[in-house]
Design goal:
Layout (H helix, E strand, L loop, with lengths): L11 H14 L12 H8 L3 H13 L3 E4 L3 E4 L14 H5 L9 H12 L4 E2 L12 H10 L15 H15 L8 E4 L2 H11 L6 E6 L8 H4 L3 E8 L2 E2 L1 H11 L3 E4 L13 H14 L3 E4 L15 H4 L5 E6 L11 E4 L2 H15 L4 H12 L2 H28 L3 E3 L7 E6 L5 H10 L2 E2 L1 E2 L9 E5 L7 H14 L4
Parallel strand pairs: 3-14, 5-6, 5-8, 8-9, 9-10
Antiparallel strand pairs: 1-2, 4-11, 6-7, 10-11, 12-13, 13-16, 15-16
Helix pairs in contact: 1-3, 2-3, 7-14, 10-11, 15-17, 16-17
Amino acid sequence: MWKPDRSNNKPLYQQIVEHIERRISNAELPPGSILPSERKLAEQLGVNRSTVIQAYEELRASGMVESTVGSGTYVSRTKWGISPMQTPNWRQYTEGGTFLPNLPLMRRIREVTQSDKSVINMASGELSSDLFPNEVVSDLLQKQRFQEHLGYDDPQGYDLLRQSLVRSLQEYNGINTMESSILITSGSQQSLYLITQCLLAPGDAVAIEDPSYCYSLPMFQSAGLRIFRLPVHHDGIDPDDIIRLYRQHRIRMIFANPNYQNPTGTILSEDKRRRLLQVATELRVPIVEDDPFSLTSFSGAVPSSLKSMDTDGIVLYIGSLSKVAASGLRIGWLIAPQTVIGRLTDARQQMDFGLSIVSQWVAEQLLTSEHFDRHIIHLQQALYEKQKLMVHSLKHTLQDKVTFTPPQGGLNLWCKINQRIDDSKLLEESVKRGVVFVPGSVYGSEPGYVRFSFAKPRLDEIPIGIRAFSEALEVFSS
């Protein structure tokens, strides 16, 4: 019996769609033929039911099949000239857009984590539910009445939140700024999207770290940018590589994550920070500093940001509450010269007329609360305990099969597998055993690297997840 090929980069649901379309076209399934139920077909093909649901939705959208309550799903009669086609070919539309879909491995990870809540999630960069400040937010909502206007707010962001960020960024990150230089966004990715769409043009060359979280974002390719890599060493990128890239390709922007870099966890050294700022200033090339992890420093000593050292206005600084407080609030910020903020605010207004005033109000209350300091300290300690347990589990279970250097903050461990391995096959073997991670190739790395996040799983899940990964890896050991 036919089954989807898991080694193929094409999504499983799409393989199922094409297989059924072929059977219909070859008259193996004539008009009116009843198809298996979602559950039964999922069992036959060895896939999640959600994969079959997605495939059937695609077939319905193209008009190939129809579904009726009580009668199940069957091959459409209207497709064969019995009556005119009424449904647009949505598949053709979705393949014609300019915004590219997520990478296949990322779609696979999302498919698994959404359809099976029992899987141990070492792929997500989100905090576990016990690390969210739920009680603090609940207490704030009870003590402080919400009395703000519920209409459209300033598209640049809630004024009181921007004022509070001025104080918070100075206190925690040593950044001196003004509220007029801050744009509130729905998170770091919206900030990156606005930058790529509004400040760059198709064909522009940009430099990103290698490996890099940016590499996993199709928005760079969707914007038509030419991407060039800056290798990440134990102390970060080499600023002199930027000079070489500039001479060869006239790069127009540098994207960097200097503090607990995602995925490697490295910190850009102080000497390299100064050199990077010097090079960027001399070349007049802006630096986009993505800084989601600095407050997770296990020691409590927050590493300096590039923005705090920037005296020439060369750094665009991106921050967020997602990795340190509440991803569900969807609150991020971008610090930039006021001319840039004005341009991005205008674009942002065209997109969504600004963020919800409610989430911005909650974020402002949280940042100014006496509890925020205690939350950050608790978060740092809890993440350190999780990382220690993951390090112990890796050393005990995998021993010399992987190599890694534990970072002093952040949410991730970057590991090199000391054998040749196929990323996608290793991921599928791990899924079978109930654990997911992010293969290194997603970040532009060569095969043989994995990123484990210790933020999402519970403490008791971490050793179980590492054992499951070890069993999956053993399948490929010779």
